[in-house]
Give the backbone structure.
Amino acid sequence: MLLTATLGTGLRSLPSNTEENLEEQYTPMGSPAKAEWRFVQGHFTTNDSYGFSNSRKSTGVNFVSTLVVSSTASLLQQEILEEISTLDTVVQYLYVAKENGTQIGYDGVCAKYQGACVPSNALLSAWRMNKDLDLTNITFPVFNLSGQLNYLVGTIGGTFLGKRTGRNQLLVKAMRLLYYLKTEDVKDNELSHMWLIHFLNQSTNIEKSLASKKIQVPGGWVL
């Protein structure tokens, strides 16, 4: 008990008004873990503004996500994807004003790949590019679109094969929307946090204003 109390007092010395850094604060100085982390940072680089890759990140990533659930057997229908697309568009058109009046939009804080914001969902992005996409031929876990493989694991949920219009096809109950934000640069990180806080304050109003008929966001938004 005495040892626990003594060690616990050390936590009071940690700054309370700064974000936790697990790697810096909770691994011993000169430990193998820190050396490995430095190696990864030096050899597996990524660029939040052009070549973002979550799998190559060695530090924390700012993001917000939600699970959109269809009120029907499957969301692979034009009218339901339209509702999801509308929700996604509203999120990406959200602006927050700085103290000097400058507006910061999602495009200014989103993590980017080849100059464009990383899509919130691969399947939704594919459908947006081609709204004539044959939704009855979607495959899981890998979907081949014009020779480009799209990995859908973790992006859709409640998947199973079922019969619709007399044939077997993939039925999808839920879709995950995931918005990655810039974190590499200190200034970008601050702006990302500012946009994120504003978004969370507005998320309930966004859902109410859309009044979607065929989709729900039962779990709210998750950081």
